[in-house]
Design goal:
Elements (H helix, E strand, L loop, with lengths): L4 H12 L6 H8 L3 H10 L2 H56 E3 L5 E3 L8 H28 L20 H4 L3
Antiparallel strand pairs: 1-2
Helix pairs in contact: 1-2, 2-3, 4-5
Length: about 180
């Protein structure tokens, strides 16, 4: 028997049924006997074609997923690099500001040559934040960089996995 457009449409419908796939539903849709659908399935290798199509779809999905993951990692790395650059600039500013306020006393110890100008609690908080950002920020962002790249941080069992466009199992039943 030669495969016709109707046979191809029946296969496409059958394939589209997914986990609910069955000859009975296909026979109902095409108004033919179930035995006819079974014969078409055997004659035109529907099971083998399903396997082939699933493999092709998996490859396309994997390629698309890999592209999304690479793009998401690139965005995350850019964000981290921007934060590191900002922290580095703050650090340079803080070092210059503190260096200009320091001098050596007669024993060679660094001491303030002038008072730091702190006009409000906000100024003090900003200096404290700058010191904390400089001390901790670079370290934390470095750890984040390792995690984004899929490398373990100081805890070898910790990795970040970026997943997008994937449904949660609890959402599967809602469709």
């Amino acid at each position: 028997m030669k495969e016709t457009v109707r046979h191809q449409e029946a296969f496409d419908f059958y394939y589209g049924l997914g986990v609910h796939r069955g000859y009975t539903a296909c026979a109902r849709e095409f108004d033919v006997a179930r035995t006819s659908i079974a014969r078409w399935g055997k004659e035109f290798n529907w099971q083998k074609r399903i396997e082939q199509r699933d493999i092709e779809n998996s490859k396309r999905l994997e390629k698309k997923t890999n592209t999304v993951v690479v793009n998401e990692k690139a965005k995350a790395m850019k964000w981290v690099e921007d934060r590191l650059r900002t922290a580095e600039l703050r650090n340079q500013y803080l070092v210059r500001a503190l260096s200009s306020a320091l001098t050596e006393d007669k024993d060679g110890k660094k001491v303030l040559k002038k008072e730091l100008e702190i006009k409000s609690l906000r100024d003090l908080a900003d200096i404290n934040k700058a010191i904390n950002d400089t001390d901790k920020g670079g370290i934390e962002l470095h750890k984040l960089t390792q995690l984004i790249m899929g490398e373990p941080d100081s805890r070898p069992d910790t990795n970040i996995t970026i997943v997008t466009g994937i449904q949660r199992p609890e959402d599967w039943e809602k469709e």
